[in-house]
Design a protein that fits this description.
- There is one protein chain.
- By secondary structure, this protein is mainly α.
- The protein has a single domain, classed as Four Helix Bundle (Hemerythrin (Met), subunit A), CATH 1.20.120.
- The protein is 81% helix and 0% strand.
- Helix 2 packs antiparallel against helix 4, helix 2 packs antiparallel against helix 8 and helix 8 runs antiparallel to helix 9.
- It is globular and about 60 Å long.
Length: 207
C-alpha cells in the first residue's frame, strides 16, 4: 500500500513538473517578444504564433516519444493532452504563414524553395508545413492504413527539425540568446530521446 502511494506521489510530482515546464516553454517566447520589442501588432503575433507553434510541436513529439512514461505521468488523460498540443501546434503553425503573407503582402511564403540547400533550410518552415498536414491527414485516416500510418507519422520529426532550422536562420528572434538556446535545447532533447528509444528497441530485440 505504501509503495503504491509512493508511486502515485512520484507520478504526481512528475506531472506537476511537466505542466510547469510546458508553461515556461510558452512564456519564454512571449517574454522575449515583449522585451525585444516589435514594430506592429502583426509582427508581434507572427513571432508569437511561430515560436509557440514550434514549442507545441516539440511537446507533441516529446509525448509521443515518451509514450510509456507519458501514460504513467498523465494517466487516462494522456491522449487528450497529446491531441490538445497536436491541435494547438497545427493551428499556430498554420496561422504563422498566413500572417507573414498578410504582413509582407505576398503568397510566396506558402511555396517551398528548392533553389539551393541554404534556401531550402532557411525557408524550411514552408516544406515542414506540408509534411505536418500530410502526417495529420494520415493520422486521421489511420484506421484505413493501419500498417503504414505510424511510419508516415514519423514525418513530424523532419518537420520539427526543418521548422527549428527555419526559426534559427530566418526567425525574427533568432538573435536573442534565450530564444536561440530554447530552440537548440528542444532539438537536442528530441534527437537524444529518439536515438535512445531506438537503442532500447534494438537492445530488446537482440535479447
Amino acid at each position: 500500500m505504501l509503495k503504491d502511494e509512493q508511486q502515485i506521489n512520484k507520478w504526481a510530482k512528475m506531472r506537476f513538473f511537466f505542466y510547469l515546464l510546458f508553461l515556461v516553454l510558452y512564456l519564454i517566447p512571449i517574454a522575449v517578444a515583449f522585451v525585444d520589442g516589435f514594430g506592429n501588432v502583426l509582427q508581434f503575433i507572427r513571432r508569437i504564433v511561430g515560436l509557440t507553434g514550434l514549442t507545441s510541436l516539440f511537446i507533441t513529439i516529446l509525448l509521443s516519444l515518451m509514450i510509456k512514461e507519458s501514460k504513467k505521468i498523465f494517466g487516462i488523460n494522456y491522449l487528450k493532452i497529446h491531441h490538445f498540443f497536436a491541435a494547438i501546434s497545427l493551428v499556430l503553425i498554420s496561422i504563422h504563414p498566413v500572417i507573414v503573407a498578410v504582413n509582407f503582402g505576398t503568397g510566396s511564403v506558402f511555396i517551398p524553395k528548392f533553389d539551393s540547400w541554404n534556401a531550402f533550410l532557411t525557408e524550411g518552415g514552408r516544406f515542414a508545413l506540408y509534411l505536418i498536414y500530410f502526417a495529420v491527414i494520415v493520422a486521421i485516416l489511420r484506421k484505413n492504413i493501419k500498417k503504414y500510418w505510424k511510419y508516415i507519422h514519423y514525418l513530424l520529426y523532419p518537420a520539427f527539425l526543418l521548422s527549428a532550422i527555419h526559426g534559427i536562420l530566418r526567425g525574427s528572434d533568432s538573435d536573442n540568446r534565450i530564444m536561440f538556446s530554447q530552440i537548440i535545447i528542444m532539438v537536442a532533447i528530441i534527437i537524444i530521446i529518439f536515438f535512445y528509444k531506438r537503442y532500447q528497441n534494438i537492445k530488446k530485440a537482440s535479447e
